[in-house]
Amino acid sequence: MYPDFHYLIKSLLGLDIPALGILKTFGFFVAMGFIFGAIAWQKELKRKAQLGLVLPQIKVNSKTGQKESIYPHQRISDFIFVAAIAGFIGAKVFNALETWSDFIQDPIGSLFSRSGLTFYGGLIVATAALYYFAKKIKLDFRHLCDAAAPALILAYGIGRLGCHFSGDGDWGIYNSAYVTQADGTLTTATTADFDKTVIEKGQYMQKFEGKVPHIYYPAPSFLPRWFVAMNYKHNVNNEGMQIAGDQEEYNSVLPVAVFPTSVWEFLACTLIIFPVLWGLRKRLGKPLQLFGVYLIFNGLERFLVEKIRVNTRYDLGFIHPTQAEIISFAFIIIGIFLLLRKHKTSISQPA
Q1: Which residue has the higher pLDDT, 318 or 168?
Q2: In terms of domains, do 246 and 322 share one?
């Protein structure tokens, strides 16, 4: 893995430049997600403006005294700024709620840590902030949501690459068909090999309290091994056992392979869901229909992935869902409602 650009450049070009460690891989892909998402969002807002679905805000130029029309797509940087700030706050707050026992032990450290971000928390709080901002500039929030739908799934998918390449812990349960050797490389294993590894490397799996979640799944011939098994060598969390002879800052590797769910989400979001939403944006003309489809796809994708991911679970009697499962299920219900409800067509009014 490449927790920062020092590791990335060293791996790709063989150049050892420690100063590049200041550039974090996760941050790079999040930034790329924002950039490509902003491009898609702006393009769709511009299309809606050309159709007359959103109207400009009228402002008086302080220098010339003349009235100027400012269209929503011209304010994309404002929308991104509001969404980024509110999203970061929401991601931190929801992560604190999800990992409450860890949070109360070190609340300041948790809030200011580079890790510990919950996507759904960011999305919910960012949406609330954008609703307030849209009302302030008299923009129809429904069209803002529809325009953002393809951009959101695209940005999310690209951001998941940051989780994968940095090895930030956003992975699935163990794939017991592969175990890690002393030098950090993976090798195929039997069930007995996995059981032996759990006993020998148990100190690295204490968080599971003796119940190590795993599925035995060797890669089929038509898939590369990395699609079903990764041990995240040099992961940014330094989680797992130390690699023999490695004295680098990030010198850990997972003792058993895990399912790389971040890769799956990247592929699902960017190669399947985004093209579908982009194609539907001209077919679903009623406000919030496209956003409803986005919520359904987003909820389904995340709900299914959560079934194989390692996350904190709530004890709700006979069911034990994760926070993401609860929210994703709610998104599916809300999405179906938005898609099927009766609509009244309206457009933004100029300020």
Answers
A1: 168
A2: no
